[in-house]
Amino acid sequence: MQVFYGSVINPETLTSYKASSNALLAVNAQGIVEWIVHDVQDSLIQETLLQKGCIEVEVIPLKDGQFIIPGFIDTHTHAPQLPNIGTGAQYELLDWLEKITFPMEAKFADDKFAEAAYPEIVRRTINAGTTTCCYYGSLHLGSTKVLADIVHSLGQRAFVGKCNMDRNSPDYYREDSPETSLCDTQKLIAHIHSLDAGSSGIPLVRPIITPRFAISCSNPLLTQLGDLVSSDPSLHIQTHISENRSEITFAKSLFPECKSYAAVYDSFRLLRRNTILAHAIHLEDEEMALIKERQAGISHCPASNFHLNSGIAPIGEYLDKGIKVGLGTDVSGGYSPSILNAIRNASIASKIRAMQANVGAKSSGQFKNNQLSIASLLYLATLGGAQVCDLEDHIGSFGPGKSFDALVVDVRGVAGNHNLWGADSEIAGTKSLDAMLERFLFCGDERNISMVYVQGRCIGGAGRS
Ligand code: GUN
Ligand code: ZN
């Protein structure tokens, strides 16, 4: 068994993330946290271990300037769009899809292209600290299998889906029929289920049904996908919703019988507790109520929402209403595969909403029209994401029985690392755990993520030998 000793930051609740500093965190051979003891003093480590009956343990002490947080969860990204990253800011969604995105995704018709591109793409998300990632592939079965294989071989926890899209897309990038789309989806599910679950017996890579968005799916396709997920309640679903005003108008015109955009997915039985809805910027009140009732989760992708001029989602209102919210990078709508970047943009987005609200009129809710706190940002990046993925019993925070999906963060400037903790912090008196966390969230990068653990196994990080 491994025991980590030092500063552990646990976003178990929105307000008490500080409570976990100086913890002993015991991780068994399967990467499961067996127990966690808070507020342990150096002199009491051996005694505490003896009390716990630990004889053969490897104690991994963390130094000043190092701390552990749960791994980041990216609830929405597009693997085949990474080659486009940083481009397209002059377009809004529908033109951007046509001019920038579909031409790139179409290149993944060639498995060889996917084999060359995907390893680097997945490696970048891992080193950015993403321990669980919800990937959209392209519409192709072959290259999405390649993506799943690479994620599996690199040891990341992930959901991998191939896009379902049989209409309102260019001839060169559209599925022939609902039947082809469904058949390829079933083959992908079988392929992912055939991947070895590893020593823990818990599969890290899981399939996810991925109707691109309502606009690109015909009624027969959505009906068949609804039948498929109804036959297996454990199947996750991901899609886009209410991102852009023109998109919403178009979607509503295609489904005049549905009261709202959310109602479209609901009418095809695609809205449920393991559904991940990306963006959700312009939801009507009725849609919020429906999403809450169905216990679906929202992936907040603020960098993409700024980049594509889509708008600013009212995340505070969703949190007040008890709707599940996590963060997404939405590459390449977003221009960074790092959840740190999503955190910064989520902070700015919340500040803009707060500034736009009536000055002086503090909202009655806890979150609405208020800026997100550091604790809330960390929560959205970890436990909030776990809830959106319907995995909160397994990941997102540290507690007995949860998997050790974690980052060792190092803010010291040692061995060429990125120094966030120089003499200035000494002078400013900001060497506290809170200050280190804040600096990491706002100024850190992958150089400060020394180790990336998934299910107790180190799979990446700047300090990995
Ligand atoms: N809506 C449908 N497809 C996409 C996509 O690839 N990116 C974003 N941001 N929105 C979408
Ligand atoms: Zn997206």
UniProtKB/TrEMBL annotation:
<dbReference type="InterPro" id="IPR006680">
    <property type="entry name" value="Amidohydro-rel"/>
</dbReference>
<dbReference type="InterPro" id="IPR032466">
    <property type="entry name" value="Metal_Hydrolase"/>
</dbReference>
<dbReference type="InterPro" id="IPR011059">
    <property type="entry name" value="Metal-dep_hydrolase_composite"/>
</dbReference>
<dbReference type="InterPro" id="IPR014311">
    <property type="entry name" value="Guanine_deaminase"/>
</dbReference>
<comment type="function">
    <text>Catalyzes the hydrolytic deamination of guanine, producing xanthine and ammonia.</text>
</comment>
<comment type="pathway">
    <text>Purine metabolism; guanine degradation; xanthine from guanine: step 1/1.</text>
</comment>
<protein>
    <recommendedName>
        <fullName>Guanine deaminase</fullName>
        <ecNumber>3.5.4.3</ecNumber>
    </recommendedName>
</protein>
<dbReference type="Pfam" id="PF01979">
    <property type="entry name" value="Amidohydro_1"/>
</dbReference>
<keyword id="KW-0378">Hydrolase</keyword>
<comment type="similarity">
    <text>Belongs to the metallo-dependent hydrolases superfamily. ATZ/TRZ family.</text>
</comment>
<keyword id="KW-0862">Zinc</keyword>
<keyword id="KW-0479">Metal-binding</keyword>
<feature type="domain" description="Amidohydrolase-related">
    <location>
        <begin position="67"/>
        <end position="457"/>
    </location>
</feature>
<dbReference type="InterPro" id="IPR051607">
    <property type="entry name" value="Metallo-dep_hydrolases"/>
</dbReference>
